[in-house]
Design a protein that fits this description.
mainly beta; five-stranded mixed β-sheet
């Protein structure tokens, strides 16, 4: 950067001069940790970008709309300054309790003065399931004619279908069993 001058002379007339100021600016770079992220429904997922220079500010959007900063905890925003000595900063968007409706494209837009750069990160649903038992009753011994009670506690109640089976057959189809289940959110 600096001042540059162009001087033209033909040796007969007055010299002609032109001055130019040159400023060197670093382009803004936005580097995502991943451009596609899979999330298991009901869990939290983090979308992350590293921005240079560190003075650039980042706004997260989805479908052209800025994500709300105070939405009851569904979205959390974090900034990591540990790379500032390298003129970089890391921005994180944390989506808590991922739902089907969270799938789609998220844009991180970095702005510094009049320069703007964006990157798109795609969030999709993972085929992995996190459905598991919190607890279940152990084996039960009873005398013939007595009732046997079994219980299971499941970690997630969204879109849960409960089926009890006996010797590989659904209990609803076996007359001697009473099938009861209760779903609570605890």
């Amino acid at each position: 950067s600096g001042k540059y001058k162009c001087v033209a002379s033909n040796g007969e007339s007055t010299d002609v001069e032109a001055e130019f100021d040159v400023k060197i600016t670093n382009p803004i770079t936005v580097t995502p940790t991943n451009t596609t992220v899979e999330a298991v429904l009901g869990t939290s997922v983090t979308l992350e970008v590293t921005v240079s220079p560190s003075q650039a500010a980042v706004i997260w959007t989805r479908e052209g709309l800025a994500l709300p900063e105070s939405d009851g905890g569904h979205y959390d925003f974090e900034t990591d300054n540990s790379l500032v000595s390298q003129n970089k900063k890391t921005y994180k968007l944390i989506i808590n309790g991922v739902e089907d409706s969270d799938q789609g494209e998220y844009t991180a837009t970095a702005t510094l003065n009049s320069d703007t750069t964006s990157v798109i990160i795609t969030l999709s649903k993972s085929s992995e399931s996190i459905l598991k038992f919190n607890s279940k009753s152990g084996d039960v011994s009873v005398y013939e004619g007595e009732a046997a009670t079994f219980s299971c506690s499941i970690n997630n109640i969204q879109n849960i279908a409960v089926t009890w089976k006996w010797n590989g057959k659904n209990i609803e189809s076996v007359n001697q069993f009473q099938n009861r289940h209760e779903i609570t959110n605890s």
